[in-house]
Amino acid sequence: MFKSIYNYFSDIYTAVRSLLTGMKVTGHYVFHPKEIITQQYPENRDELKMFDRFRGEVVMLHDENNEHKCTGCSACDVACPNGTIEIISDWEINEEGKKKKIIDKFVYHLQMCTMCGLCIPACPTDAIVMSEDFEHAVFDRSKLTKVLNKPGSKIMDGIK
Amino acid sequence: MNRLILKINIYDFTPLTQAIHDALSESFSPGITTLIEMVIIGIAFITLFTILGLVMVYAERKVAALFQQRLGPMRVGFFGTAQTIADAIKLLLKEPLMTKNADKFLFNLAPFFVIIASFLAIAAVPFAKGLQALDFNIGLFYIVAVSSLGVIGILLAGWSSNNKYSLIGSMRSGAQIVSYELSVGLSLLTMVVLTGTLQLSEIIESQQDGWWIFKGHIPAFIAFIVFLVASTAELNRGPFDLAEAESELTAGFHTEYSGMKFSFFFLAEFVNLFIVAAIGATVFLGGWMPFHLGNWEGFNLIMDFVPPIFWFLAKVSFIIFIIMWFKWTFPRLRIDQLLTLEWKYLLPINLVNIVVMAFIAMQGWHF
Fold first, then answer.
1. What mean pLDDT, rounded, does chain B reach?
2. Nearest residue on chain B to A36, judged by CA atoms?
């Protein structure tokens, strides 16, 4: 009897308290407009900075000597779930007279890419990364098929 | 005309309305005078409805955005101020659709029921001194009575749409209003115990030396909280928006409505929010009465300097803000939780509260 009366009032008390806690949280947001998350996108385009783990599109890193790290092993091609990456390889005779596999074209079909990022950990030499660029819209479909290795680039020394 | 402009006094509208009445009486017979006055008041209220709709929809969107750490409308006009005008134009241009087997007469009638209930209720709201269309001696009772008429429109809309979601939504709304009307009435009655009158202008006059929420001790405060909760439920607003529960019933009773008929429901919802806030402000927070502190003559004079209409609007906005705060903080209740809250908690609390208040009033402990 007294137990149930006690429960009745403690219910009211805890309910009011938890409701007030919720109102305190949302009330805090109202009076702290600096915490607003929304960004005014086209206006802030110049200073817009995406976060580190953002997955834009796949790019191949080149250093200042126009050298990349891709050995043409096709591990990224295998890892890709929807056949976005197509590697056209070539053979090169090195100074020791051995034939060595190099890439001719690293073709990246952006229109098929879901930005899942599975190719990045698959790469044994860390040749490709996801960039922070997300403005992919183009007027011509053919522009979506990109060759990632720059013309005239070659593989870095010591990468196997 | 000049004579009328001279009579405009922002602190007291009685001379102005009296002058208009006299001017009309000079040239028309009493019957036609009344008719013209009614037309003037009708036009005034239609204008008010439009402005309220535009302002409050914008306010709601901005306030909701602030509660959710968003910006809200920002593109149309300066800080999105023209957004609601764009919305209104869009609604005007939309095609009024109807379901195939809808009851055509009731389907078209329902929005008018809802909007007319709001019109009836707003007529008794005192905006400022002398700025009140109807000053009944049973004003409070009248507002409570006509504001619950809107539920007939909701029930008709749900029934005539020939849509199961609409019907479930409107039935829920009916159950909700029948339950919560009780709490609204009783919490207002708690204050009527103190005021001793139902006439809204007299209720405001009785708060000249302090608002009832301060003068009535804790019971008045409890009554205010109960009033806020119960009237939120009566407005079908979140967290009590079971009648339209988007996740379960698409849009509840107005699922099948589009264009202007939909906007009638939409407008009525916001105007009802204004009316509820106005009743709350009138009964608990002193209506258009400025904030006075005991014997501080200087302070009271400064407070008197602010026109009553602004006091009224400020108090109304305050209550609207609290109701919006409820909506954008709490999750929606289930129907059984809704009825439990009313019948097991609010109603008993209210009944005890009214007895306590009667005892306080009898002993003369209030200020």
1. 82
2. B69
Of B315, B309, B322, B323, the closest CA to residue B282 belongs to B315
Closest by CA to B245, choosing from B158, B185, B322, B137, is B158
Determine the residue of chain A that is closest to B63 in CA distance: A30
Chain A nearest-CA residue for B69? A36
A·B CB contacts under 8 A: 37
What percentage of chain B has pLDDT greater than the value 90?
Answer: 0
Tell me how far apart the alpha carbons of residues A14 and A27 are, in angstroms, rounded to a whole number.
19
What is the pLDDT confidence band of residue B22, given thresholds at 50, 70 and 90? Answer: confident
Six-digit token string for B256:
């099948």
B312 pLDDT more than 70? yes
Task: Give the DSSP letter string of B299-354.
Answer: HHHHHHHS-HHHHHHHHHHHHHHHHHHHHTTSPPPPHHHHHHIIIIIIHHHHHHHH
Cα dihedral angle (B116, B118, B119, B123), rounded to 10 degrees? Answer: 150
- Which of B71, B326, B349 has the CB atom closest to A36's CB atom? B71
pLDDT in tens, B54-66: 888 888 888 888 8
Q: Where are the domains of chain B?
A: 1-93, 100-363
Q: Distance (Å) from the C-alpha of residue A37 to the closest C-alpha of chain B?
A: 6
Of the partner residues B67, B328, B330, the one whose CB lies closest to the CB of residue A19: B330
Residue that wins the pLDDT comparison between A59 and B295: A59
Q: What's chain A's average pLDDT?
A: 84
What is the chain B residue with the closest CA to A27?
Answer: B67
Exposed e or buried b per residue across A120-133, where buried means at least 16 C-beta atoms within 10 angstroms of its C-beta: bebbeeebbbbebe
By Cβ distance, the residue of A27, A33, A37 closest to B325 is: A27
Flag if A26 and B71 touch (Cβ within 8 Å).
Answer: no
Chain A contact set for B330 (CB, 8 A): 19, 22
Residue B168 is inside which H or E element, if any? helix B164-195
Q: Which of A12, A23, A29 sits opposite B66 (nearest CB)?
A: A29
Q: Provide the H-helix boundaries in A55-144.
A: 75-79, 119-122
Segment B212-222, tens digit of pLDDT: 777 777 888 88
Inform me whether the pLDDT recorded for B262 exceeds 80: yes
Q: Test B70 with A38 for CB contact under 8 angstroms.
A: yes
Which strand (E) or helix (H) includes residue A67? strand A67-68
Bridge partner residues of A85 (DSSP): A108
Reported as a single tens digit per residue, the pLDDT across A92-143 is 777 777 777 778 888 888 888 888 889 899 988 888 888 888 888 889 888 8
Give the per-residue pLDDT at A4: 87
Identity of the residue numbered B146: V
Q: By the CB < 8 Å criterion, does A40 face chain B?
A: yes
- Tell me if A40 and B70 make a contact (CB, 8 A cut-off): no
Contact A37 B70 (CB under 8 A): yes
